[in-house]
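SAMPLE LOG
Freezer: B-3
Tube label: C17
Construct: single chain, 240 aa
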Amino acid sequence: MAPGWEAFCLDPKFVRPAQTRAGFVLSSERERMERPHHLETAQTSTSSKLGGIVIVVLIHVAAIAALVVTLASGQIMKQIRDIQASVAADKVPPKAPPPPPPDLAKPPPPVAIVPVFTVDAPPPPSVTVAPKAPPAPPPAAPPAAPTQLESIQRTHTLPPYPTISQRLGEQGRTDMEVAINTEGSVTACKVVKSSGSERLDTAACQYVQSHWRWKPPTREGKPVAVNANVNVVWNLKDAQ
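STRUCTURE (predicted):
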């Protein structure tokens, strides 16, 4: 390689960065190969020892400087005084003097408190006026006793004897049941026992119903209708 070519190759003006690095590596490798190996090892060991000695010296110097600064500022003495003060026994405070004896003056006599009671007067009793009872109604008059049926005798005459019955000799007794209204007249007639002749029975009912009258009975003062049993005796002696 021509002299000055290496410098030319390493000059950044003429060589790109990649080429410069390559040339530097080649130059260093070449110098290492040309330099003796034992000289390089001895030089490295000497440098390491010198570096260690310098570090130890610097550590001691820093420690001494810190100690001197601490003593100068009085921090150590202050810490020692604080420790002694905390270790020292606590002082016992003096006992307080006893309190003065209490005043034995006689207390005032107790005053009796009389309670005052107020009793409310009870309210007056309420007066309830009961309404007057209405007067009792006068006693009702006793009902009038019912009266009996009374016949009007002047009307109770014998009926005329039938001519045929006289010729045939018919006679006997006709028993009848008649209905009498509130006016005393006969409204109905029924033969309950025959005389033996229907002709005589019919003549008896017709005559009684048309001629006989009664005074009807009353109940509580009012006339009432009733039924009655009557009879007619047929005797040829009474025939005309």
